Amino acid sequence: MSFRSGQSGTVVRKGKMWHGRYYVDVPGQAKRRKVSVPLGSTLEMKKNEAKRKLRALLDKMGLNEDSHLERTEAGARTFAF
């Protein structure tokens, strides 16, 4: 896997809900999986509030920490020549 510098995700509007989109590293694979989570109603929060909520969610899950990347790379197989 290559170096991942972290992510802030993207906030999009789906109907009357804000959704946060981000990528999750899959152990043993080079590609990442796309994830979309509902953040809240467009009537209750503005887009900036939804961005802050997504950032807090990513920090809580620890996706931008070095230890997370090390855990995902630990399960990867390498082939030596």
Structure description:
- This protein is an alpha+beta fold and 81 residues long.
- It has one domain (10-74).
- It has 2 helices and 3 strands, in the order βββαα.
- The protein has helices spanning 47-61, 66-74, and strands at residues 10-14, 17-25, 32-41.
- The chain has a 3-stranded antiparallel sheet, covered by helices on one side.
- The radius of gyration is 15 Å and the shape is elongated.
- The model has no long low-confidence stretch (mean pLDDT 79).
The count of strands amounts to 3
Overall number of structural domains: 1
Task: Please report the distance between the alpha carbons of the first and last residues.
Answer: 18 Å
How large is the count of helical segments? 2
- Helix-strand pattern: EEEHH
**Overall average pLDDT:** 79
Query: Which residues form runs of ≥5 with pLDDT under 50?
Result: none
Task: Tell me roughly what share of residues is in helical segments.
Answer: 25-40%
Instruction: Find the structural class using helix and strand composition.
Output: alpha+beta
Instruction: Name the overall outline.
Output: elongated
Q: What topology, given as strand order, has the largest sheet?
A: 1-2-3
Characterize the largest beta sheet: strand count, sense, and whether it forms a barrel: 3 strands, antiparallel
Radius of gyration: 15 Å
Strand content: 25-35%
Outline the fold blueprint.
Elements: E1 10-14, E2 17-25, E3 32-41, H1 47-61, H2 66-74
Antiparallel strand pairs: 1-2, 2-3
